[in-house]
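Project outcomes to date are best conveyed with an example. Our students and postdoctoral researchers have been running inverse folding experiments weekly, and each run begins with a structure described purely in tokens. The record below, which covers 296 residues, was selected by the lab manager from last quarter's runs and is presented without edits.
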């Protein structure tokens, strides 16, 4: 009887997810996720959202470094190679809007279930020079191969500036999610001398988004032209996976007030994550709602 109940709950979750995919016209994207391990959705963000996100990221750089960086004309002397800017969610309300975008969130929910968590939100702020980011899978925290066929983590990568190989674009290897392991040796390379010949450059525009399965090999090229490549990398995990950033219990009060009726946002930030207790012990009412399958 219990097994039947668990199967029913997971089936109901899958039905809701597939209904959302159909309503949003994402059937082809779902096929691409299954076959090649990633999918590109153009024009998810408006021009206004892109500009607001870029302004907030540049404000973070100014706050952290004291430097005003020209995103169009910066040289290696201004900002060389890639710098990761973490924990952006609370910097500006535009990041809340982006986290809530229904199209990528629906695809992430298919990959990770309705109980998934936001693991991190940051920007790979890339100036000219530096080294490529080697191809890798995000199952990199000591997870032994073979990886499970289902996704345990997944990524959403928003382009905020134009992507091309010379501009330091993201690259992915189609079908690599089915290999269920990390790349090795020459498989990791994105240099001009010996690049992985299967790597596909994401030539996309500001506002476009790439969503990929956690097993999929990905990396990025070094930037060869002036200016800054900006993205927003939004990383998600199943409920039982340790998140990169801490959100549960530390979400600012004003943020919670804005989302008091937004159950999905609360779940993404750990409201139903039962672990991490101290002297008070476990909350069994939350534990009773633990995920009951791949989609729950």
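After processing, the design step wrote out the following sequence:
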């Amino acid at each position: 009887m219990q097994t039947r109940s668990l199967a029913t709950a997971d089936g109901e979750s899958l039905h809701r997810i597939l209904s959302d995919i159909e309503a949003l016209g994402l059937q082809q994207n779902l096929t691409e996720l299954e076959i090649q391990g990633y999918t590109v959705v153009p024009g998810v963000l408006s021009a206004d959202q892109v500009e607001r996100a870029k302004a907030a990221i540049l404000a973070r750089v100014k706050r952290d470094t004291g430097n005003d960086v020209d995103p169009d004309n910066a040289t290696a002397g201004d900002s060389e190679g890639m710098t990761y800017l973490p924990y952006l969610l609370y910097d500006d309300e535009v990041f809340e809007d982006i986290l809530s975008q229904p199209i990528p969130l629906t695809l992430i929910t298919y990959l990770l279930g309705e109980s998934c968590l936001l693991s991190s939100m940051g920007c790979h702020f890339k100036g000219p020079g530096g080294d490529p980011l080697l191809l890798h899978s995000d199952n990199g925290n000591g997870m032994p191969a073979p990886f499970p066929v289902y996704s345990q983590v997944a990524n959403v990568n928003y382009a905020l500036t134009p992507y091309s190989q010379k501009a330091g674009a993201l690259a992915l290897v189609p079908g690599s999610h089915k290999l269920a392991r990390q790349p090795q040796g020459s498989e990791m390379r994105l240099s001009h001398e010996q690049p992985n010949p299967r790597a596909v450059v994401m030539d996309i525009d500001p506002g476009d988004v790439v969503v990929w399965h956690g097993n999929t090999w990905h990396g990025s090229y070094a930037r060869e032209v002036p200016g800054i490549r900006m993205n927003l990398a939004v990383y998600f995990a199943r409920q039982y996976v340790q998140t990169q950033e801490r959100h549960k219990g530390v979400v600012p009060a004003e943020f919670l007030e804005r989302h008091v009726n937004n159950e999905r946002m609360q779940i993404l930030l750990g409201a139903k994550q039962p672990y991490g207790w101290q002297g008070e012990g476990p909350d069994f009412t939350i534990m009773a709602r633990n995920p009951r399958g791949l989609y729950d």
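The chain has one domain: 36-245. The chain has a mean pLDDT of 95. The training component of this project remains on track.
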